Amino acid sequence: SVLLYQKPNRDICQSGTSLKIQCVADSQVVSMFWYQQFQEQSLMLMATANEGSEATYESGFTKDKFPISRPNLTFSTLTVNNARPGDSSIYFCSSRGQGNTEVFFGKGTRLTVV
Amino acid sequence: TQTVSQSDAHVTVFEGDSVELRCNYSYGGSIYLSWYIQHHGRGLQFLLKYYSGNPVVQGVNGFKAEFSKSDSSFHLRKASVHWSDSAVYFCAVSARGSSGNKLIFGIGTLLSVKP
Fold it and tell me: How many domains does chain B have?
């Protein structure tokens, strides 16, 4: 299995500011995924991040708004730029273990933009 | 493109009842199917998965799911629910292959277990 640690657990930020969310895996993983979940809704895949390459974004998510870094096989950061109240949601990082079909999730970062 | 649908937004049962949470998918190739549980205000916990072999897979806490290729389904079942099973259940699909590691989630089914 893979343990994923997210920091911070929650944050409140002002509109127009930026926020960084970190995700650390306890072992090396090929791909890390970032998901967004609005309250009482499903999880939406935002992007896939592989080491040393630019993240691949899903429809509706852009690099300018949600830049993602993946400097090594155990770490990724998601930045929320120019945060707006509509960005208020929970952000999850996830990854699949080596040779494993099971996907693991961090505990999420609850962001509130005021 | 793979998709997954969960037809029931909310299911209510009594403690000790059996329950089935439905999941249907669409995809032409080989896929992985899984179920996750999310208790209120918490992260996602893995329940079970299917990718080949026995179509009936056993998960944690007495949950099991059955894969049906003919019905394009992967319904989750439990014989006797407990109040602590109250949560949102997400069905997820991912396509096998180099680009297939990302999970696509259904909208979730809220299971309410009454005492």
Answer: 1
